[in-house]
Amino acid sequence: MMSTASIVIALLSFALGALLALLMIPILVWLERRGAGLIQDRLGPNRTNIGGFRLGGVVQSFADVVKLLLKEEYYPNHIKKGRGLLMFAPIITFVSALLAFMVIPFADNIIIDGESLAVQPLPIDYGVLWYLSIGSIGVIGMFFGGWLSHNKYSLLGASRAGSMMIGYELPLGLSVLSLVLTYNSIGFNDMVHWQSQTLFGFLPAWGMIVQPLAGIILIISLFAETNRAPFSVAEGESEIVAGFFTEFTAMKFALYFMGEYVAMNTASAVIITMLFGGYQLPWVDTELLLSNFNNFAFSLMLVIPIFVFIIIKWMKKNNRVRPTVSSDGGRAFETKVLTIALTTMTILVEVILIVLVLFPSDLGSSITVMLFQIATFVVKLMMFNIFFILVRWTLPRFRYDQVQHLGWYYLLPLSIFNIFVTAIVIVIVGV
Amino acid sequence: MGQRIKTVPRYGNTLKEKLYLPAIYQGMKITFKHLAQNVSDSNAIDTLEYPEEQPTDITSRYRGLHRLTHREDNSIACVACFMCATACPSNCIFIEATPREDGQDEKMPSHFSIDTLECVFCGFCVEACPCDAIRMDTGIFSLTGNNREDFVLDKDKLLSHKGAFGEEKSLARK
Asked: Chain B contacts of A216, Cβ < 8 Å?
C-alpha cells in the first residue's frame, strides 16, 4: 500500500526528471550558440522574441523547433529497404539518452512520516549499472541510421561512432569500477552520501579529490561517449559531411541533434553525481541542514536577495542596446517586467521562510531542504554543461586515429592501473 | 666556408606537452576570460547591430551605388559619350543619346541605365568619365528589390542619388 506522500514524491521527481532533461534541450542549444558567440567576441542569437520578451535569446530555440517540425518530410529515394528502422533509429538514440538520465538523484531521500522516499525518477539503487547499460544503447541508433542510409559517409560516421564507443566504454567502465570500489556502492545516492563526508577534516571528499585519475578518465571518456568536441569525429564535417545523420532531415535530424544534447546533459549529471558531490554543497550534508534548520533558513534569507539583486543589476546593464541603435525592441519593458517578477518571487520566498522559522514543522523543513538540494543540483548541472560548451569552443577536433590511440593506449592502461592502486589501498586501509 | 645549419626546435616531446592537459587548461583560461568579460558587459562587444546600427566607417573612396551628377543649373552633366559603357568590363551600362537643346552641350542621354546585378563595382566607369558625370560616392552599400527589374537603375534613379561626401555637382561640367 503506497502512501499519498510517496505517490506525490514519485510523480514530482518523475516530472522533474522529464523537465530537467527535455527543457534543458532548448536551453542548451541556446547556451551553445550564445556561448560560442560570446567566447568568440560575437553576440549570438539575440533577436527572436515574443512581444518583446527574448529572455536573452532563448526564444530562438523554440522557433527552431517549430521550423524543424514544419519542414518537409524529405525521404531519400535511394533508400529502398528498412525505412521503418531508419525512422526508428533517431528515436533509439534520443530515448536511451533520456532514460539514462532518469536514475540521477536530484535531492537526498526525503523522510515523510518515517518513510524514506527517493527523489529520483526511477527509484532504484543500482543506478550506475542502469546508466552504463542504457547509456550505451544510444550508439545502436546511430549505427542503424548510418547503415540504413546507404551512404558511404553515413556508414563511415556510424562505424566511427561504434568504434569510439568500444574504445571508450572500457576506460569509462573501469574508472567507474574504481569509483564503485571507493564508494562501496553502485547507487548514485549512496555515492553522494559518501562524498558529503570530509577528508582530513577540511577537504570535501568529492570523487574528483579522492580519485583524481579515475575522475579525469571518466570525464574524458564521457566527452567521447557523448560525441562532443574534441572527440566529435563521428560527425566530422570536414571529412564525412555530417557522419551518420547525413541523410536525415527535419524532425528525424532534430531527434539526433536533441539526443546529443540530452546525452551531454546526462553526462554532466553523472559527472557531478559521481565526482563533484551531486546535490550536496561541500561541508553541508542533509542532517546538518535539517538539525540547524533555523540557521539554514536565515542564511538563505540573506543569500537569495543578494543573488537576485545581482541578477537584476546584471540584467539592467546588459538587457539594453547601445545608444547608437535606433530601437531597443522592447528590451526596457522586458527588464521592467522581469524585475517585478523576480522581486515578487524573492519576497514570496522570504515570507515562506519566515513562516517556516516561526512555525517549525518537520515536513516544511525537509521540503525546503529538498528544494535547496534540487537548486544546488541544477546550478552544478548548468556549470558542467557550460564546461562542456567551453571545451567545445576551445579545442580543435582530434584526428580519428589519435582518438583511438588515446583511448586504447593511454586511458585503458591508466584505468586498469588505477583499479589496482585503489584495490591495494582499500585492502591496506581495510575499509 | 662553414655550413650554415639551422636546427629547428621540435616541440611536443616533453612530459608536460604529452600530457596535453596543461595546454587544455591554458586554452580554456583564454576562452573563459573572453566569455566572462563578454557576459559581464555584452554591449562592449565590438559588433554592429545591423540594421538598427549602420556602419560609420565608409570612406570617400568606398565604391558604393552609382549616381549621375548635376551641373550648376541642376541639369544632367552626362554628355552621352559612351566612354563608361565602353570601359565597363561587365557591359552593364546602357545609354541612348539624344541631342541637347539648351545649348550647353551637343548631346545628353535620353536613357541611362545600369544593371546592378551585372555590375562588379570596379569603378572603371568613374575613371573613364571625362565629365565627372558618373560617380560612386553615394555610400549606399545595400540594394534590395523584389524582382530583377528592380535592380536595373534608370536615369531618374541615378540622378536622385545624393553624394555622401559633400561634392554634389560635377566638377568638370559647369
From this structure: 21
Give the pTM.
Answer: 0.82
Q: Which candidate from B28, B38, B49 shows the least CB-CB separation from A38? A: B38
| Strand bridging mode B67-68 / B93-99 | unpaired
ipTM of the complex: 0.82
Closest CA to A84 of A155, A145, A42, A43: A145
Count of all residues that appear for chain A in the document: 431
Chain A residue with minimum CA distance to B39: A38
Residue A300 neighbours by CB under 8 Å, 6+ apart: A353, A372
Within 8 A by CB and 6+ apart from A54, the residues are A46, A47, A48, A329, A331, A334
Q: How do the domains of chain A map onto residue ranges?
A: 60-282+395-429
Query: Sorting pLDDT into bands at 50, 70 and 90, what band is A431?
Result: low
The minimal CB distance from B27 to the residues A321, A322, A394 is found for: A394
User: How does pLDDT run across A143-158, given as a tens digit for each residue?
Assistant: 888 888 888 888 888 8
User: pLDDT tens for residues A324-344?
Assistant: 777 777 788 888 899 999 999
Is the Cβ pair B38, A326 closer than 8 Å?
no
Q: According to the CATH classification, is domain B67-160 in 3.30.70.3270?
A: yes
Contact A43 B47 (CB under 8 A): yes
Residues on chain B touching A320 (C-beta within 8 angstroms): 43
B31 touches chain A (CB under 8 A): yes
Question: Which residues from chain B sit within 8 angstroms of residue A410, using beta carbons?
Answer: none
Gap from A303 CA to chain B (nearest CA, Å) = 20
* A43 to B45: CB separation less than 8 angstroms, yes or no: yes
Q: Do A213 and A413 meet the contact criterion of CB atoms below 8 Å apart?
A: no
Asked if the Cβ–Cβ distance from B47 to A42 is below 8 Å, we say yes
User: How many helices (H) and strands (E) would you count in chain A?
Assistant: 18, 4
Cell numbers representing residue A67 in the block = 521550423
pLDDT digits (tens, 9 = 90+) for B32-88: 999 999 988 888 888 888 887 888 888 888 999 999 999 888 888 899 999 999 999
A294: amino acid identity, one letter: N
Distance from CA of A390 to the nearest CA of B (A): 7
Q: Which residues pair with A281 in a beta bridge?
A: A284
CA gap B83, B154 in Å, rounded: 18
CA–CA distance, A321 with A331 (Å, rounded to integer): 8
Q: Is A321–B40 a contact, with Cβ atoms under 8 angstroms apart?
A: no
**A46, A30 Cβ separation under 8 angstroms:** no
> Which 3 state secondary structure label does DSSP give A359?
coil
Residue with cell 568568440: A40
Distances in whole angstroms, Cα of residue A196 to Cα of each of A108, A275, A279, A283, B56: 11, 11, 10, 7, 58
